Design the sequence.
């Protein structure tokens, strides 16, 4: 665990895996726009020119998709004129060149990718599942972190009742502090923060597995993009969020605890709850 000292006062424990995930040393794409405008071609997003050769320009775009940090290479061929040089950084809309017969097959695919940039979001929360740590960010800067427990079964959540914690990008849809009813009321520890699981990536997986209909997958996609609660009663399951516990717990006794939720210490949940707000992005990775 790395300890970051902010303004010489606040110490934040950040897992090394998260430090690599948030590495700001390359331009990060945070939105896409169409590359072709008639016979001219422009950069779809922030990136860096990887190579320029014989009418071909290759742009490397690094971006965050779901729970992953990815790099895609955007290739434009058959350009008659080229306006960039190898190694040059580009912004969305930067002129790349022109060509009446130029083409870029990957353009349509990249335009479909919803991207989220935790380095620029006003607030974001990253759960490093393997490190059992949740880190609060403000514009990419870690400002607080807490130990967590996870679901009773290891691995990524796939279906309702598998006791696993999901992986992906979700949004806060509910915040509640107070009394709970039911057999498991005490285990909320008086707090509940609900997330928009399942998301479109979970839905695509469910569709491929034959446990979700196309209509259900479309509904999940639309609601997730609106940062709203997604359908909770499909075979993918639901009811995923953050809460505390019925009593103090220790990592030494094990951290596989919940039905799939992320569990905070009772002594930490109040500070966590005060920071996290409705529609805040949460990445479980």
Sequence:
């Amino acid at each position: 665990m790395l300890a970051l000292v902010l303004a010489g006062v606040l110490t934040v424990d950040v897992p090394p895996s998260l430090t690599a995930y948030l590495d700001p040393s390359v331009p990060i794409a945070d939105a896409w726009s169409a590359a072709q405008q008639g016979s001219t071609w422009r950069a779809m997003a922030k990136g860096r020119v990887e190579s320029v050769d014989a009418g071909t320009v290759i742009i490397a775009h690094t971006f965050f998709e779901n729970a992953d940090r990815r790099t895609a290479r955007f290739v434009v061929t058959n350009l008659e004129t080229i306006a960039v040089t190898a190694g040059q950084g580009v912004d969305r809309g930067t002129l790349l060149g022109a060509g009446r017969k130029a083409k870029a097959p990957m353009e349509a695919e990249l335009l479909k990718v919803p991207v989220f940039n935790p380095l620029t979001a006003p607030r974001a929360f990253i759960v490093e599942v393997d490190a059992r740590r949740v880190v609060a960010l403000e514009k990419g800067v870690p400002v607080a972190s807490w130990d967590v427990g996870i679901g009773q079964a290891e691995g990524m959540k796939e279906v309702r009742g598998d006791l696993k914690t999901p992986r992906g990008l979700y949004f806060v849809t509910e915040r509640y502090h107070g009394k709970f009813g039911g057999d498991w009321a005490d285990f909320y520890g008086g707090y509940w923060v609900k997330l928009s699981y399942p998301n479109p990536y979970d839905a695509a997986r469910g569709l491929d597995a034959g446990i979700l209909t196309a209509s259900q997958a479309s509904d999940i996609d639309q609601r997730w993009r609106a940062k709203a609660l997604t359908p909770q009663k499909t075979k993918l399951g639901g009811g995923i969020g953050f809460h505390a516990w019925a009593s103090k717990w220790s990592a030494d006794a094990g951290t596989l605890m919940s039905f799939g939720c992320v569990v905070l210490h009772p002594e930490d949940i109040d500070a966590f709850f005060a920071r996290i707000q409705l529609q805040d992005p949460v990445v479980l990775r």
